[in-house]
């Protein structure tokens, strides 16, 4: 069944005139390139959740009647996990004077916010924009930036682990020490664990190549939980392989992780999140709304996603009652 949660709180006007010399000359007709909207998209790494957010964003324009290559173009850049590259991409977009920038994930959003001051910036797949220094508040971001948050229901996700593994006592979490979004989720997990009687064991990485070693370093845990961490998600296959080989159940924080081989999660659709961000962009471009006055938005539904085959590979037996509750089963 789908679960509903409350929202945290749900400009650019281009104008110009041609200066004509001479008195009787007719005004030239605008070319297609003059009318073309250019949106710069900066993505921190390539993995399914972020890819889905990007494609959802673009689909919002398709559904609004825009045709790529005719009246809109997307300059898509990937920072390959490097903050310095994200800053270079942001500087490029500022120099190119694109009409709007979409920053996918916290590091690229931070780079855009620090570099771009006079172009509308929207972010998506950012967990806690205020903690990341992107906005003054969720309700009124200020400056030239707003967007959508992927803040996930951490406590419900830990409760799901307990429902599937009633005897679980220790949950290992692997995350990137350099990602604000991950720090926020780990703190939420620690707080929830106190109420649930769980012990959290942490392992950190600085890049995706360290994921395998960090997984092994967890040692004796009853389950592994992966937050919406970009670097760990990029290297998720190493965690899946370890979990299957050692019969340690793996749980995710977003749908794509379950599709790749985690057992289950209560998660959001990143396609829908990106689509919602695209709708915000259209309001900015068409209606002249100011990003700084647009509340940060979230999705109001989460889905229970279940991967029975992954559970079997990790030695977990799922009850028929649990399977019946799933919104989506990964075959």
Automatic annotation (TrEMBL):
The keyword Signal applies. SUPFAM superfamilies: Periplasmic binding protein-like I. Pfam families: ABC_sub_bind (PF04392). InterPro entries: ABC_transpt-TYRBP-like (IPR007487), Peripla_BP_I (IPR028082). Residues 1-24 form the signal peptide. Keywords: Signal. This is ABC transport system substrate-binding protein.
